[in-house]
Design brief:
Number of helices: 17
Largest sheet: 6 strands, parallel
Distance between the termini: 48 Å
Mean pLDDT: 93
Radius of gyration: 20 Å
Order of helices and strands: HEHEHHHEHEHEHEHEHEHHHHEEHHH
Low-confidence stretches: 419-433
Strand content: 5-15%
Length: 433
């Protein structure tokens, strides 16, 4: 029985006052993958399922994925292209349905084979983007990724002709996982959503990954919501928060406290979905049980909080992050009506530039640093069109030792602080700029 589409399911949960929580989960064995989905569905939370694909499938190395399956080897995800469609359909039978949509997560700059496989298996939700699944993940030229993603969006959008409402989530709010200032995360997430819409999608989610300073994260999510309201007026969109994607705390207590802050961020900002991490993130791939535990902990934590009563005013506020993100988005949109071509030109000119990203199509002049409060700041804006938006403070040199310390900032912060009470303490911190 086919239930609500992915976007509709999340919308119904929002209307019921429930945060949707979701794991990162992928196993190569269809039996284990099925068990993971069933456990996610049975969790004491409002959940959606995840099928995360393996690294060979991500880069289009079908031969290696198929060889691993023949040798009964274990992969780090589900090889949806290499498993025959009948196998995947059997794995999903009785799992996907009314009240439990499933999303395929993959990390590919060449996703058309993946999209065809998931559609053939009866699935209709995925994620990624022409920028966010290109620059951080390999050396595929940005122009090729943009072409590939345009083709894949149009493939997925064909499902609307048979009465289904496909869903696509941007990964733009998570460039490199850490050390990209929030304004650029917000801008790329919005631009990728507009790209999806231009290529036929109507149900879209925009992402934001928890960063290094809670107050800054609140400001970023409100800026994201404002820009989406301005630029995605005819789209069914929602916000998905990712629990921190950088170097994770090594202690179970620190990992749980960090996830609690992500749940608080999602609940208080009115975000509709949260992708969790577990206490095992720093050392290995989590078990099914650890994923379920993280889902339930996040749900219980989020249920303690309501959206901020002043949320409408906070979304409309002229914050520093909104000013920067709007400048970046506006500069890209001024380059032409074709958003894919505009994105390519923006990176070529340095109008979008990801700090510390080594991809050949990234200009590589922008730099960031953490201030004493853990806020992500621009050390050097390069050619980013932020002259009028960024408070002038001059270029700042970031040393290699400072960069390494910044990469481990969150781990050190949360591993050195025991859990005291609940994440409610964060709610008392100032959220201004």
């Amino acid at each position: 029985m086919r239930g609500a589409g992915f976007g509709e399911f999340v919308r119904r949960a929002r209307d019921a006052g429930e945060l949707v929580v979701q794991p990162r989960m992928g196993m190569s064995d269809p039996r284990r993958m099925r068990a993971g989905l069933l456990a996610t569905r049975a969790a004491a939370a409002t959940t959606v399922g995840t099928i995360t694909l393996d690294s060979y499938t991500r880069v289009g190395d079908w031969e290696s994925a198929e060889l691993a399956l023949l040798e009964d080897g274990s992969l780090n995800g589900y090889p949806i292209v290499s498993h025959d469609i009948a196998t995947t359909r059997r794995m999903l039978a009785g799992v996907q349905g009314d009240g439990f949509p499933i999303q395929v997560r993959h990390g590919s700059a060449t996703p058309s084979h993946i999209v065809c496989a998931l559609m053939a298996a009866g699935l209709d939700a995925s994620e990624g983007g022409p920028v966010s699944y290109c620059l951080p993940y390999g050396r595929v030229p940005l122009s090729e990724s943009i072409h590939n993603w345009a083709q894949s969006c149009e493939l997925l959008a064909r499902l609307r002709s048979v009465g289904r409402d496909p869903h696509l989530e941007t990964f733009g709010g998570c460039m490199l996982g850490q050390l990209c200032p929030p304004s650029q995360l917000v801008a790329i997430s919005v631009l990728e959503a507009m790209f999806f819409h231009q290529h036929g999608l109507r149900s879209i989610s925009v992402s934001y990954a928890q960063q290094t300073n809670p107050a800054q994260d609140f400001e970023a999510v409100y800026a994201l919501r404002r820009l989406c309201g301005e630029l995605l007026a005819d789209v069914d969109w929602h916000v998905v928060i990712y629990a921190y994607m950088g170097v994770y705390p090594a202690s179970p207590e620190g990992a749980q406290r960090l996830l609690g802050e992500a749940a608080l961020l999602a609940a208080t900002t009115g975000s509709e979905r949260l992708i969790v991490k577990t206490v095992a993130e720093s050392v290995r791939i989590p078990t099914i049980e650890e994923n379920v535990s993280a889902l339930e902990y996040a749900a219980v934590t989020a249920a303690q909080f309501l959206p901020d009563p002043d949320i409408d005013a906070l979304v409309k506020a002229d914050s520093q992050i909104y000013a920067e993100a709007a400048s970046l988005v506006g500069a890209v949109l001024n380059m032409g009506t074709d958003i894919g071509q505009a994105l390519q030109l923006a990176f070529r000119r340095g109008y979008l530039d990801i700090p510390y990203c080594l991809h050949p199509d990234n200009t590589g002049r922008a730099r960031s640093y953490l201030d004493t409060a853990g806020r992500l700041c621009w050390a050097d804006t390069g050619k980013l069109p932020l002259v009028d938006a960024v408070v002038a403070r001059g270029a700042r040199t970031v040393t290699s030792s400072e960069l390494l310390e910044s990469l481990s900032y969150v781990r050190r912060k949360f591993d050195s602080q025991p859990i005291v009470g609940s994440p409610a303490e964060v709610a008392l911190e100032p959220r201004g700029a």
